Amino acid sequence: MTHSPAGNGRGIHISGGSTFNGNAQTGDGSSATYVHHAGDTRGPAESPEVIRLREAVEELRRQLRDIGATELSPAAADAAVSALDEVDEALPSTEEPVRGRVQRAIFTITGALASAASLTEAVTALRDAAAPWF
Fold this sequence. Notes:
- By secondary structure, the chain is an all-alpha fold.
- The chain is built from four helices and no strands.
- Helices cover 45% and strands 0% of the residues.
- Helix 1 runs antiparallel to helix 2.
């Protein structure tokens, strides 16, 4: 504990083996905030398989935006977009992707987009990229 200049017993308590560097303000109405500064905020690198699947998801998403309503029903497009979002959410960068979520989303996407001939290549690339999760 550090005492104030007047010796009033006010102090700073740090628990958990933490250290304190810098100036401290004590007194009535004082406040402090804790800010964690990480050295490297990027986190662990994603595996090549996850990167490949993310790229395939983005390519299919781009092609879905460009496709006309005459080739794909709005309901099928909405189902595919929701399933692409599910794949994105199932691919955390720091952990193993959730296998079941990826599989269900890929099944939904391929079923929803089966009738869109112009998306065949992108759907095939997505299935190939998702192969490690099957």
